[in-house]
Fold this sequence. Notes:
This protein is of the alpha/beta class. It folds into two domains: about 1-175 and about 215-235, Rossmann fold, CATH 3.40.50.720; about 185-210 and about 240-270 and about 295-330, UDP-galactose 4-epimerase, domain 1. Helix content is about 45%, strand content about 15%. It has eleven helices and 13 strands. Strands 3-2-1-4-5-6-11 form a seven-stranded parallel sheet, sandwiched between helices. A two-stranded parallel sheet has the order 7-10. Strands 8-13 form a two-stranded parallel sheet. Helix 4 (about 90-110) runs parallel beside helix 5, helix 6 runs parallel beside helix 8 and helix 6 packs across helix 10 (about 295-310). The N and C termini lie far apart (about 45 Å). It binds nicotinamide-adenine-dinucleotide and thymidine-5'-diphospho-beta-D-xylose. Thymidine-5'-diphospho-beta-D-xylose binds near residues 175 and 269.
Amino acid sequence: MRLLVTGGAGFIGANFVRLTLAERPDVDVTVLDLLTYAGNSASLPEDPRVTLVKGDVADPEVVDSLVRDADAVVHFAAESHNDNSLDEPWPFVHTNIVGTFHLLEAARRHGVRFHHISTDEVFGDLPLGTPERFTPDTPYNPSSPYSSTKAGADLLVRAWVRSFGLEATLSNCSNNYGPYQHVEKFIPRQITTLLDGGRAKLYGAGLNVRDWIHVDDHNRAVWAILERGKIGQTYLIGADGEMDNRTVISTLLEIMGREADDFDHVPDRPGHDLRYAIDASLLRDELGWEPEHRDLRAGLVATVDWYREHEPWWRAQKLETELRYQRLGR
Ligand code: NAD
Ligand code: TDX
């Protein structure tokens, strides 16, 4: 089987390729990735079963030839960072919406199975301190340019299923953590700043809640959907990992042997979503998926170790990322 993985040099995509090589000996992978600031070929293993093609998902010609040669497409490629989308929204429209359109058209032309990777942020946010969670029936209500372009892409996929009979599935996952995550994101930003002797950076009061899941649990769910998911169905992926940002920072400070007050409050993100929480019962009941990483603290310990041991992987990103945050005042 030949799988086309878009965005396979990014955080979740690279972990997906690694998991696939380790657990699916019958699968060869072609990665289509533009290698933007967020893509890194060093996140991919050197392996004869992996071919990396540098190209844009919004380039119809490259997309057509790669989709034609694939048995299935898993579409991870995206502009993925909310803070960047507030600063400069156009790349989000280009990659997330126009790129998804060209992939869908190619999959339709060549009759190729398609899985679309999306986020829980398409549903907007939930109030703090309630038991309410997102389900596949929650109405779309995105807040940021990032989440609105992901919502737009999801709706294109749904329309291509209904109007053209495209064999597609969708998944909306909560916040991922694990190795190879860009240092612009919350957890690796704090870990690498603390490793450099700096202070952690908390947006606003830090009461915002995210529903953390280990990247391998996300990717195992993607495989379950690819193999056994119902065409046209949206699956929500989450591992009951709710924690507020302030507690995440306290936990990291404790793990890394730092003082409990070694963090700064920095100005809040405009439009900052309060809380995300996923009800993954469809995935569990229909496809029998269960998360393997259930202890968030243990997952954070392993993630701290990974960044401690892989400084050459993240060092080059760190300076430019912090310069960007300095300009944004965060
Ligand atoms: P990432 O930013 O780490 O990786 C994105 C990858 O896409 C990079 O390798 C980048 O080079 C590539 N890319 C960007 N624009 C491209 C283009 N025009 N053509 C080809 N490649 C391009 O992102 P991630 O965190 O790995 O997220 C992957 C997917 O998962 C995204 O679709 C995102 O919306 C979704 N998602 C992420 C999370 C999370 O917590 N990180 C949670 C739920 C869903
Ligand atoms: O330095 C920081 N301090 C801080 O308090 C950063 C970078 C973030 N935060 C807060 C903002 C959020 O409440 O931490 C939380 C997590 O922030 P991000 O890592 O930027 O993630 P989020 O905005 O929640 O979006 C992520 O999850 C859903 C991914 O980036 C998206 O791609 C995914 O769709």
